[in-house]
Specification:
Helices cover about 15% and strands about 30% of the residues. The protein is built from six helices and 27 strands.
């Protein structure tokens, strides 16, 4: 779940007119479409000027690795090795988000003499990568730097905003630790924010969605573990451990176990019978929860490990975008707009953020997204909020 989901919706074969038999240019898959493996742009300034930067995407967390993979796939005009030199930065001209782009000095040899060029790269937007004029490719560029994962920085702010927006709507349904037995609940960041926002709204002091508390962005996750029933008595839980693929997930407050009134205050509105405990954890994607009880029941072990069962999201209905009459700046016959979104627990697409493609088509792409039907990612049967990058195709 941490890397987001890419929806696939039918391949489009990209064919480039050629001489004689018009052979199909070698192409590779990029999400749900096919694009040239080493496309040469029609614009000779592509990647070589600040206002024509290569939109490689990835955001602050992933852009460096993506830029290096892209540059590592480039070769000189006769297949020469490209040497990556110094790196600088510059503002992206005309960008409404005031993005900062990176500038790499690269070189290759021609007849024993180095040829130096600057390649400009935009880590905040994305389009199918091409090779700047004068360069060729050692490997397919779309494979070296495919569609980026959702930017965690943008996603966190979007999750906070969505939680505040949804707080006054349907009741929260936290994830059951065990769908078949009342063991307690897991609350991810979205659920923790929504719990606090709903409590504030019920108290008549709702949060301003335009100015959410900064600490919400630092929220991690939490577990509320119920006592175990054993005949006519209950056995309290004494500890909980969350496990991820890399090992145990650290607690936000080492040793901090919430009980009684402290538990009710920390997680208002979440059912917690007497004898329950609550523990806060860092933000991570757990695969298992291990609950330790004061003792076993009738000779059974005093701990139990519960897996988190994941169901991937599914696109149930895609509505392609329609190019509005009179829209300019669309060079491709079958353009694609890339958008970072959240999929909410009900499968609605929310909080769209432009990522790449013809900006003039972005409003139409958002209109199309509103008509999509999606089955959200589910954990133990409960829908969860997930950041995603989606492709919105347009028909001619």
């Amino acid at each position: 779940m941490s890397r987001g989901l890419l929806f696939l919706f039918g391949a489009v074969l990209v064919i480039r007119p050629g001489l004689a038999a018009q052979q199909a240019e070698p192409s590779v898959a990029l999400g749900a479409i096919r694009v040239p493996a080493c496309q040469t742009p029609g614009d000779p300034e592509y990647g070589l000027a600040a206002n024509k930067a290569v939109a490689i995407g990835g955001g602050p967390m992933f852009m460096d690795a993506r830029q290096r993979r892209y540059l590592g796939a480039l070769r000189g005009p006769q297949g020469q090795t490209v040497t990556i030199g110094s790196r600088g930065s510059a503002p992206l001209p005309g960008d409404p988000e005031h993005a900062i782009i990176d500038v790499y000095q690269v070189s290759y040899d021609v007849d024993g003499r180095p040829v130096q060029k600057n390649i400009y790269m935009d880590g905040y937007h994305y389009e199918a990568p091409k090779a700047p004029a004068g360069f060729t490719c050692a490997t397919p560029l779309p494979s070296a730097a495919g569609i980026p994962p959702a930017d965690p920085v943008k996603a966190t702010a979007a999750v906070v905003a969505l939680a505040l927006e949804q707080a006054s709507k349907a009741d929260l349904a936290p994830i059951k630790l065990d769908p078949a037995s009342p063991r307690g609940y897991f609350l991810d960041r979205y659920a923790l924010i929504e719990v606090q926002a709903r409590a504030a709204a019920n108290a008549g002091t709702p949060y301003d969605p335009g100015r959410p508390p900064k600490e919400f962005e630092a929220f991690g996750s939490a577990v509320i573990a119920y006592p175990m029933s054993c005949g006519d008595r209950t056995i309290p839980a004494t500890n909980v451990e969350l496990l991820a693929a890399q090992g145990s997930i650290a607690r936000e407050a080492p040793g901090g176990i919430l009980q009684g009134d402290d538990l009710a205050t920390a997680f208002p509105g979440v059912p917690a019978p007497e004898g329950s405990i609550g523990i806060r954890f860092r933000n991570a994607q757990p695969t298992q929860a291990r609950i330790v009880y004061a003792q076993g029941c009738n000779g059974s072990p005093a701990e139990i490990t519960l897996p988190f069962r994941l169901e991937q999201a599914r696109l149930l209905e895609l509505v392609p975008g329609v190019i509005p009459a009179g829209v300019a700046g669309v060079a491709d016959a079958e353009p694609v707009v890339y958008i970072q979104v959240l999929i909410d627990p009900e499968g609605h697409i929310a909080r769209p953020q432009y990522l790449g493609g013809p900006r003039s088509l972005y409003p139409a792409a958002v209109d199309a997204l509103a008509k999509w039907r999606v089955q959200p990612i589910r954990v133990n049967g409960s829908g969860v909020v997930t950041p995603n990058v989606v492709q919105v195709p347009f028909r001619p």
